[in-house]
Amino acid sequence: MNRLLHRLRHQPLSQQLALSAAGCCLLATLTLVLVASQSTQSIQNTTLTEHAKAAAEQLAARAATELSAGDRLGLVAELQFYTDQTLFAAARVLDVESMELAARGQVVADAQAFRHPVVIDGNTAGQVELYLDLGEQKAARETLIWGLIALSALLSVAVYALTRPMGQKLASNISEAVAQLDAVTGEDSASINEVHKLQDHINALPLELLRSRDPGDHGEEYYTDTAILCISLKHLPGYLDTLDESRLQQYVSVLHRMAYGCAGFYGGDLSVVRQFTLAIYFSGDHPAGSPVLRAASCAWLLSRSSEIAEKRDRLSFTAGLAVGVSELGRGDEKDIYPGLYIQSTLDELLELSNQPVEGVLLSSHAAEDRGLTTRMGIDVIDEKWMALGEISGAHLDLLERQLHLIKRMIAPADDDTPQGFLPF
Fold it and tell me: Would you say 224 and 291 are in contact if contact means Cβ atoms under 8 Å apart?
């Protein structure tokens, strides 16, 4: 059955529609034939049963008359009267001891017997038996059923003949579309089914290039205050001309691992924003504190880890660090407005991070953050620059523990991921 359905699915569309319609028609008409056969048989059995019972009762009355007169020939004549009818195969008269007194006809194997007592003067003198012969009725019913089945088959063939041209007309429209796609894709499908051909050609099309892109709704996460740590890689331009390629890649890899690791402690997103300049974005809620505090903590970790990396690799990793605040986030491909808005803040921080001043510099807006001032002090340099000052004891302990992990991470790991063994 599965093989038949599989073959049908791969036939031409006109053939599928015609066979499906013809099959449904045949199934419906055969169901009607079955219902009609059962209904006819039930009605016929009820009618013949009532007729046989009445005939047996009438025969018993006539047999009683003949028996009371002692006329055996008359009794046989009465039996002959019933057996001459095509409905009855045989008739018998039995005495009270079930001994046969008279009989006519031949009892067949599947004949149905109907009995009625013979009563003379109120006493039972025996009984009569009538045997129905349903062979003729059964043959007539079978002839009718087979005729209806043949008619159902003819109707199904007629439906097939009418439906196939309609399916061919429908398939011709699909074939025209397939022919147009042939010229575009330059490929020919091996299937003979028009729908499968169309599907194969559609799958061969570069649908990604045809699909339009809708930026959709604006991301609410980009419309909140975002702290930015700007990292100016001051020594990288000089190393481009002095280090070989493998050494340069190792240097950049260490920078990447340090920045990624320090940002991971505080949920920061690392990104390249300018040539030789990185930015780490902090926004939203975090157990470590406000976005500005997290940015400043990440900057402190990065400055200390740079000192450790310099002692290990004999190269300068010290970067210019500046922390600022933007009213919007970095944006993405679905909403470019925050990304355009934040560029002015990045330009300001880039200028600040390139100043010849040591320490982590702060913008005026970032220096006013209450989440920062409760954990870290603010130093004023030459009445112009503001930088991170002393750190409270509890927060400093946290930073020292994180710095210990970063120190282990600076050494090359077996895997290629920038975070090394860290869980983020």
Answer: no
Amino acid found at 141: R
The Cα–Cα gap between 331 and 268 comes to 15
Angle (nearest 5°) at CA 305 between 303 and 307:
75
Report CA-CA distances (Å) from 63 to 129, 253, 282: 11, 122, 116
CB 392, CB 354: distance < 8 Å: no
Instruction: HSE, CB side, 13 Å, CA atoms: give it for residue 203.
Output: 8
Given a contact cutoff of 8 angstroms between Cβ atoms, the answer to whether 345 and 318 are in contact is no
- The residues, ordered by sequence, that sit 6+ positions from 412 with a Cβ below 8 Å of its Cβ are none
Dump pLDDT digits (tens) for 400-417: 999 988 888 776 554 445
Pairing of strands 277-283, 360-362: unpaired
- Cα separation of 165 and 117, whole Å? 69
According to DSSP, the residues that pair with 228 across neighbouring strands are 281, 324
Close Cβ partners of 158 (under 8 Å, ≥ 6 residues apart): none
- Say whether 166 sits in a helix, a strand or coil: helix
- Reduce the DSSP state of residue 273 to 3 states and report it: strand
Other beta carbons within 10 Å of 146: 11
Per run of 10 residues, the mean pLDDT along the chain (length 424 residues) is 64 79 90 87 82 84 80 80 81 82 77 82 82 78 87 90 84 75 64 71 64 56 87 91 90 91 91 92 91 94 91 87 91 83 92 88 90 90 82 90 86 51 51
Tell me the C-alpha distance between 314 and 308, whole Å: 10
Strand partners, 232: 277, 320
Structure-token pair, residue 277: 């300049």
User: CA dihedral defined by 133, 138, 140, 144, rounded to 10 degrees?
Assistant: 170
- What is the number of alpha carbons within 13 Å of residue 73 lying toward its C-beta? 0
Break the chain down into helix, strand, coil percent, rounded to 5.
55, 20, 25
CB-CB neighbours of 187 under 10 Å: 10
d(CA 62, CA 409): 120
Closest CA to 196 of 181, 209, 186, 208: 181
What type of residue sits at position 362? L
**Token representation of residue 278:** 């990185």
